[in-house]
Amino acid sequence: MSSEEPRTDRVSNPTGLDPRYYTPLLFFVLSYNTRPPPLLPRFTNNLTLYPPCPSTTSENVARFLSHLKNSNLFPLNTMCLSEQSRASNTANSADKHMTDMSDLDLPVVIPEETRSLEVSQCLYPKEYEGHFDRLLIPKDEIAQVVQALAKQLCSDYQGTRPVLVCVLKGASPFFQHLCDHLMQQKQGFDTEFIRVSSYEGTSSTGNVQVAGGLNLQHVQNRHILLVEDIIDTGTTLSHLIPHLQEQASPKSIQVATLLKKRLPEPAKCEAKYVGFTIPNHFIIGYGLDYNELYRDTQDIFIISKEGIDFDATTLN
Ligand code: IMP
Fold first, then answer.
1. pLDDT tens, N- to C-terminus, the chain (316 residues)
2. What structural domains and CATH numbers belong to the chain?
3. pTM here?
4. Is the CB of 199 under 6 A from ligand 1?
5. What residue spans of 97-253 are helical by DSSP H?
6. How many Å apart are CA 204 and CA 57, to the nearest integer?
7. Which of 66, 90, 217, 314 has the highest CB neighbour count under 10 A?
8. 274 in ligand 1 pocket by Cβ < 6 Å?
9. How far is the CA of 176 from the centre of ligand 1 (A)?
């Protein structure tokens, strides 16, 4: 095999799916190589199947991908279609058969060990060069999970009009994308914003400051959904929820968090809706900051020592 040819590995049936559903997926023989295929969009956002086949439902595809991802057989962002199936298609037909990924099993578990994901493929301001130890979650995976969370919410809040309360600042991109999906599903909602802080540097102070911004009248006696970026110790929410319960007497109060850290100790507060569980690292990006930097990236990274030591005042 020349170095130009992609490497193709076959995967044995790992999903327990009925082979009738599984075979068409294998038929495509997922191949992986380090370069994106010439005609198709990079294989990160959606699985594109050729030719479309009745049994390749989005649910089966999602289960299959979820298994591959959890088993770490194939890093999701390096999977692409086999040469055989790729050759018979064009970029235009690729767009027509994008598969809906909203049936992903949640939460998606991000494994402890390093995944082979390339920081170099991400977009970020040049001043952050060297500040990432590694890429933890690429933007396409975030997008899939936000879509799946929105689907759960639509189903649970059907027939009601919840108030989505964005916990600033970190949850802001997650909140915005979640709202986009709810709008696409014609799920009505109101929005509110609350400012809370408990972190100094990379550790929680345990001293939770609710800085306000919330119109209490607006959330009174409503179904409240708190939208958080990350649950670490759970201290923030364990203060915020009783505060809102006392002040707003809501009909219900639930939490949707994009991320939850897997810590040895249980968190002080659990969320009903969790996008990813992640190893215990300090992470940045997609709204998450370290001393107010790094909110302006689309992907989520683990911060490097250089990032921690960086003097942000040199940027102004
Ligand atoms: P908790 O109160 O310990 O659950 O921490 C929750 C809050 O701390 C989040 O809303 C974040 O603002 C912040 N936080 C926790 N872990 C991280 C992290 O790894 N990176 C950035 N911010 C974090």
1. 444 443 333 334 444 444 444 333 433 434 333 333 332 333 333 344 433 344 445 555 555 556 555 655 444 433 333 322 333 333 333 333 334 556 788 999 998 876 667 888 899 999 999 999 999 999 999 999 999 999 999 999 999 999 999 999 999 999 999 999 999 999 999 999 999 877 666 666 667 777 777 888 899 999 999 999 999 999 999 999 998 999 999 999 999 999 999 999 999 999 999 999 999 999 999 999 999 999 999 999 999 999 999 998 888 7
2. 19-79 (no CATH), 108-315 (3.40.50.2020)
3. 0.72
4. yes
5. 139-157, 172-184, 216-219, 235-248
6. 44
7. 66
8. no
9. 19
